[in-house]
Every structure is written in structure tokens, then in C-alpha cells.
Design goal:
25% helix; 6-stranded antiparallel sheet
């Protein structure tokens, strides 16, 4: 199988001596480059209160304000421990200040249908699916070793939710990934809440936690053979040098079990196959080899009852976000926050169904595509235009109707060959480096696809 992009994996034998870094080289598999779209799921005890302030997207809010007013519902365990936060006040007023773990016991996903949900995921055109297996609250969605019953098999749902997700994903013919929070575990570490971006992220770095997290991820690899290993925040420092519970051993086990597997870049700058950005944060890595932007449909990853249409991507907005990312060589990992009962919130479902309908009509120019050389044609915001390439075809996605003028288009783009997504010829004339056309209303709201043959 052809592979694209090359990544460098680095492991520290001695954190103090860079000359002891051990380097590994891997090629990013073509399936990941071709997939373009993945679906992320955040689901946990935080889905019971499902509460956060919808203040905006990560990367657009002042850091000093972020944690006290955190829009991430999955951070509820942290936010309610910040004494003067609105979330703490909500917890006192609604739940009498009850301990967070009460939500684990109250979590009853009696409407969870993994097959139906994965059918929805597949309909979007997504090539891979990644559920959270343990978020920062430390609750595992399978009976992970060493959790002493603080997991969804022993309490609450009374079910191996990761196993259910994995089977439904494989049955749907999609690649399966696992998210694991290696850098934060508020229950295991019992560290104070994080209140300010400027402070040291109070994360556990000791050998006991390094072994605990290592055993969890190895168990995930052994049980579910994931194709994507998606870490978050960091990794305990004690697990970075070589040794029996080291990251070096962890990734050797992962790639032995899944030779076509990929890992992200949130393991403490020790190893990655692809880089990640999140909403508007960390975008400097975009365009550097294989990369992926992750975001929720709203401002939160976990289900948030405080969000409404003002805070969520509409279907057309999700399409534009997706196309923009793909045109720049990235993948989109779009998150769904399931309700505590296991259902997709109505507004999130509406967005996914719209994305599915648009991709059904236009996906041939998106999935498996590559960015078009900017010397042939480049993006524009007036009108909004993004380009991809599939073989000898240049694909223009134009978010406009009626008379449009596309500038900066070289002679390599054959105006006379213009076709709409369904193959209907489109009259396009050339005026120097511009193409002029009259575009129809799209069958599904979103950018209109126009395809052109490229000169050899």
C-alpha cells in the first residue's frame, strides 16, 4: 500500500540529555491521508449534568478567563472545584454540592444503540471513529486494570462501552481509534483544580501514575487493536525514559498490533504520526505533514444543555469548515457529545445529517483528494472558494450562486471542461487569469462543486 508523509518519533532515554534521544521513522498510511473525516465522541459522567458556559471557541477567549468559565462540559469536575466559578454555583444550587462521582452512578445510557449511532457516523463519509476511553476525570469506559471499580462496567452503565463502540465501528467498516487522557487524571492525582493557563498544569508525573496509565493503554491495545491512538495533554514524565513501563514500549506494542496505526502529537512531544490543532488553538502546526483539526459541533466536546443554535455549527457551516481543512491538506475530527442516555442531541444530529447529504453529492472531490498547487489556483474569500485535486481534475468549491468570478486561476485549468458534481456541463469563460460562470443553487446547502480537467 502506498504511504504518504514521513513522521519522526523521538523517545528520551534521558530527559536531560538530548543526545540520547532514540529516533524512529514511520510513513503515515494512505488510509489516514485519504480519510479526511473522523468522528470523535466525548461521553462520561459529565454527560449527566451536561453543563458549561458557552463562551466561545478555544483559541478565541482570554486565557485568564477560560478555566473559571470553561465552555467544555467534559471539564465539569475541574470547573466545579473552582470556588467562585458559575459551575460551582450551579453544582451547589442543583445538586447540593454532591460529589462528582455521584454522576457516574446516575449515568444510565438506556437509549444507547451503538449500531444506529455508527450508521449515522458512516453516513457522513467519515473513515474513522474515536471515542473517549478515559477523560481527565479518570473514569474509564471499560473495566480498565487498577481502577478499583471506578469504571462503566462496575458502576453506572454497567457495560463495556468501548467494546460496544469497537464492535459497531468494525461492523460498519470503519477504522477504530481510542482517546486516552494520559496527562491529566484528577481522581488518581487528587491535585488542585486548574484555574489559570499561566500556572503549571497540575498533572501527575510520578512512576505510579506512569505505570497505571501504561497498563491502561496496553490493555486498550490488547483488547481492541485500535487504528488510531489519540493521547491528550501530555504523558507522565516518569514514563518517558526507556524502561518496562515506557512510552517506547507502549508504541512498539501499538505498531506491532496495528502496523497501519497512527498516533497523534499530544504525548509530551515524544512521538507523533500527525499533528493536531483544536478549534482555533495550535493552528501553527497545520500544513506540516499530516495534521488534523478537532472540534465540537458546538463550543464543548461533552454534551452541554446550555448550547443552542447560536453556539453550534449549522450544516452548511460544518461543510465549509470541512472543505477548508481538506483543501489545506488536513483531516477534520468532528466531535459528538452524546447525552447521558446515549442519544445524539437533535441539533448535533441535524448538522451531521446535513454534512452526510452534502458529502453524498460532492464527496468524490473531497475524500481521497489532495490540495491543489496554489500556482494552479488558490483560495479566495470573495467569493469563498477552496480547491482540491483528484488525479487530473481540479475541484473548485464555491460558496456563491449566480454570476461569479474566480481569480488567480492559471491556464492549466481547462475552462471548457467545467462540470457540476452530477456531471452536468457548465458554461465557463476565461478572462485572463479569471474564470467567469453562473452557478446554480446547490441541491444541498453549501459550496457548489465545479470540476475542471487539468492540462498535462
Amino acid at each position: 500500500m502506498k504511504k504518504e508523509h514521513q513522521s519522526v518519533a523521538m523517545f528520551k532515554d534521558d530527559p536531560v540529555r538530548p543526545e540520547n534521544y532514540r529516533r524512529f521513522e514511520r510513513d503515515v498510511p494512505e488510509w489516514f491521508t485519504d480519510a479526511k473525516l473522523g468522528v470523535f465522541v466525548h461521553w462520561g459522567p459529565y454527560s449527566v449534568p451536561a453543563w458549561a458556559e458557552p463562551i466561545g471557541e478555544l483559541g478565541t477567549i482570554e486565557k485568564q478567563y477560560w478555566f473559571t468559565h470553561n465552555p467544555y462540559a467534559e471539564w465539569y469536575f475541574n470547573t466545579i472545584r473552582i470556588e467562585d466559578s458559575p459551575a460551582a454555583e450551579h453544582q451547589r444550587e442543583v445538586y447540593g454540592g454532591a460529589p462528582y462521582d455521584d454522576f457516574l452512578d446516575q449515568w444510565n445510557p438506556d437509549e444507547f444503540d451503538p449500531e444506529e449511532f455508527l450508521a449515522l457516523v458512516k453516513s457522513t463519509g467519515a473513515g474513522y471513529f474515536v471515542p473517549t476511553t478515559k477523560h481527565h476525570d479518570g473514569v474509564t469506559l471499560w473495566d480498565a486494570p487498577g481502577t478499583d471499580g471506578r469504571n462503566t462496567v462496575a458502576r453506572g452503565p454497567k457495560r463495556d462501552l468501548i467494546g460496544a463502540f469497537e464492535k459497531a465501528t468494525r461492523d460498519a467498516g470503519l477504522r477504530f481509534g481510542v482517546y486516552y487522557s494520559g496527562g491529566l487524571d484528577w481522581h488518581f492525582s487528587q491535585l488542585p483544580p486548574i484555574t489559570d493557563e499561566g500556572q503549571e498544569f497540575g498533572r501527575p508525573v510520578d512512576a505510579a501514575y506512569a505505570e497505571y496509565a501504561y497498563d491502561h493503554v496496553v490493555d486498550l491495545i490488547d483488547r481492541y487493536s485500535p487504528d488510531v491512538l489519540w493521547g491528550d495533554i501530555e504523558w507522565p514524565d516518569a514514563g518517558k525514559p526507556s524502561g518496562p513501563f515506557s512510552m517506547e514500549n507502549l508504541f512498539e506494542k501499538f505498531y506491532a498490533a496495528s502496523p497501519e496505526g497512527v498516533a497523534n502529537d499530544r504525548w509530551g512531544e515524544t512521538h507523533w504520526d500527525f499533528r493536531t490543532s483544536e478549534y482555533q488553538n495550535g493552528t501553527s502546526v497545520e500544513g506540516t505533514g499530516a495534521w488534523e483539526n478537532c472540534r465540537g459541533i458546538g463550543f464543548s466536546f461533552g454534551h452541554n444543555t446550555q448550547e443552542d443554535e447560536r453556539h453550534l455549527l449549522s450544516g452548511p457551516a460544518a461543510v465549509a469548515t470541512f472543505v477548508d481543512i481538506v483543501s489545506r491538506g488536513g483531516n477534520l475530527l468532528l466531535n459528538v457529545g452524546l447525552t447521558a442516555r446515549g442519544t445524539v442531541p437533535d441539533l448535533q444530529r441535524r448538522t451531521l445529517e446535513h454534512l452526510a447529504a452534502w458529502n453524498a453529492a460532492n464527496g468524490d472531490a473531497v475524500f481521497g483528494s489532495r490540495p491543489l498547487d496554489a500556482g494552479i489556483a488558490g483560495p479566495s474569500d470573495e467569493p469563498w472558494v477552496r480547491w482540491t485535486r483528484t488525479g487530473g481534475i481540479a475541484n473548485a468549491f464555491v460558496d456563491a450562486t449566480g454570476d461569479v468570478r474566480l481569480t488567480g486561476v492559471s491556464e492549466a485549468v481547462d475552462a471548457a471542461s467545467a462540470r457540476l458534481a452530477d456531471g452536468t456541463p457548465l458554461a465557463v469563460t476565461r478572462d485572463g487569469d479569471a474564470l467567469v460562470a453562473r452557478l446554480p443553487e446547490p441541491a444541498v446547502a453549501g459550496p457548489v462543486l465545479v470540476r475542471f480537467e487539468l492540462a498535462d
